[in-house]
Design goal:
Blueprint lengths: L1 H14 E14 L10 E12 L3 E11 L12 E13 L4 E20 L3 E22 L3 E21 L2 E2 L4 E17 L1
Antiparallel strand pairs: 1-2, 1-9, 2-3, 3-4, 4-5, 5-6, 6-7, 7-8, 7-9
Length: 189
């Protein structure tokens, strides 16, 4: 019986590649309120499965660890968390170009600041999230270190608050975007 199971799994094992474990740390910005929302630290953990030489399928968990803000009239915040499925491509060689696309769900815990003359907050969850990333890394087949830029688009976030000219009106559902830049350490197991 065990031999039959091994023969049944042999094609999958031959197709399989190494498991990748990536740690990322960097900074996160909210362009729509760049002057009032704080730049916040962002951390991420990715577990990937190398499929062939150029492709990795993975699961990414990330968090933006800024303050949560203090209400519509309070202090600014920038905090979120998400989990995503990710498809990552990379070139071969000592220095590699990487690119990734990810889809998932997350929560904007609080983003507060000025949006074109407004004082307000953006929040919501669970929200649909998509990401695009581009990076450069250097290393061996077992260990890579690099830099990565990432665009995150949040769909359906609730925006509410006041403008400098008076009440803004009812809360609206809108898209929100974040940009991040981080250092990435990847270990192939």
């Amino acid at each position: 019986m065990r031999i039959a199971i091994l023969f049944a799994l042999a094609p999958a094992v031959a197709w399989a590649g190494p498991v990748e474990l990536s740690f990322e740390g960097g900074a996160n910005w909210v362009p729509s309120c760049a002057y009032t929302c704080p730049t916040a630290p962002q951390v991420a953990l990715r577990v990937g499965y190398q499929v062939g030489q150029l492709l990795s399928l993975g699961l990414r968990a990330e968090g933006v660890l800024g303050p949560d803000g203090g209400g519509i009239r309070g202090y600014p915040g920038n905090r979120s968390r998400a989990i995503l499925g990710e498809l990552q491509l990379h070139s071969t060689g000592l220095v590699q170009v990487t690119g990734a696309a990810a889809l998932g769900a997350g929560e904007i815990v609080w983003q507060h600041g000025g949006y074109d003359g407004e004082i307000g907050e953006v929040h919501g969850g669970p929200l649909f999230l998509y990401q695009l990333a581009l990076g450069l890394r250097i290393g061996s087949p077992l260990l890579h270190f690099g830099l990565e830029g990432r665009y995150s688009g949040w769909l359906g976030a609730t925006r509410e608050g006041d403008s400098y000219l008076g009440p803004r009106g009812p809360a609206t559902k809108e898209s929100e975007m974040n940009l991040s830049l981080g250092a990435v350490l990847t270990i192939s197991l």
